[in-house]
Amino acid sequence: MSSRRGKKKARTSRQYELGDEDMISRLPDELIHHVLSFVDTKQAIQTCVLSKRWELVWTSLPFLNFGLYDNLTPKVVSKFMRHVLSNRNHESQVSHLSLSVRNKGLSRHLLEKYVDYAISHNLHCLNLDLPHDSKPVNLSVFSSKSLNKLTLNANLEKCERISDCWDLPCLTTLRLKGKNGYGEFSDNWFTMKCLPALRKLRFDDYDLSKSSFSFSLPALTTLCLNRCTLPTTVWDIPTLKSIELHGGQLPQNLNEIFSALVNLQNLKVVLTSRHNQEYVISCPPQLLNLIIIAADYYPCTCNTIVVSAPKLCNFTSFGVITAMVGVPELETVNVRLQGVFNKIGWTSKKRARLRLINMLPGLANAKNLTFDLDSIKVNVCVCVCVYCRLIL
């Protein structure tokens, strides 16, 4: 009996060696690298114990993602990161580097060393997240001829200011995140230079009130401001075609800051419960597409918006708002409540219906008018309930 079991085990092992391995291991390295790009580098290295096939896969990973590692000591974190860089295949490129290590054991010297290593290996995407109390970073470290996407979550006030520090001729996307609420963005201590290819710029949690908002970015077409205090001066960025405003403090009349945006075609505004007032969106005449989103709903909020855009073609509203659209001719209109109907009471449903009714006259010239199911439910439900009450 034991001899039979031994033969069966040997046969099974032989079959495995001949090719009865798992389907994932049969994939080419490029596909395995793509799968491992969704996990932390520490987890990617742990796959080396699966089989001989996986022993060296991690050494040629083009995606290096270093997480928070809050449960590890600074010494262990630094040792691990040194191990990764010293033992990987140095002929392989590093197309993506994500450093989210908020561990105080990561010194400025090591940080700049890792970034410099990745840049020397044809880095395309860099995501850097530093703690609030981190030491100043030399921005010239990010100079690269290949980098096209940069996300920086740090106190830029602490960064060392060096003339022409942003030497990134191929950078197309830049995202700057403030730390601990609003980070200050001032022209006095931070300038953007040598970014001739930048097309998309995004700010998160920044106070831009002290900025002149005049950038020498000839290719910039898209600007996104998320939870930012907007500058009060006229925005001198004539190349802009698309703007997204998410939350933050908005001026009552956006025309005051949009007047110089002569090429603006797309505008997206996200309102929150703090925006309890009337807004005037008097857009440049060339605006074609407008999206207004009420991120949440409270019965006491107004969210009334007066829109003046003579050439507007497409208008979309999400949530419960009252948009007074003064447009001669609209191509398409989409009105969506996004599930609000199921979350509000009877009184709020009546208010929601009233706001929708008040918005309809301004949409009368639309060639195509679309309501989602919740919008129809609000009108039908309120009408039926009122009718039943009258009968009773």
From TrEMBL:
Coiled-coil regions listed: none
InterPro entries in UniProt: F-box-like_dom_sf, F-box_AtFBL13-like, F-box_dom, F-box_SCFL_complex_component, LRR_dom_sf
Organism domain of life: Eukaryota
UniProt-recorded name of the protein: F-box domain-containing protein
Annotated PROSITE patterns: FBOX
Location of the F-box domain: 21-66
Originating species: Daucus carota subsp. sativus (Carrot)
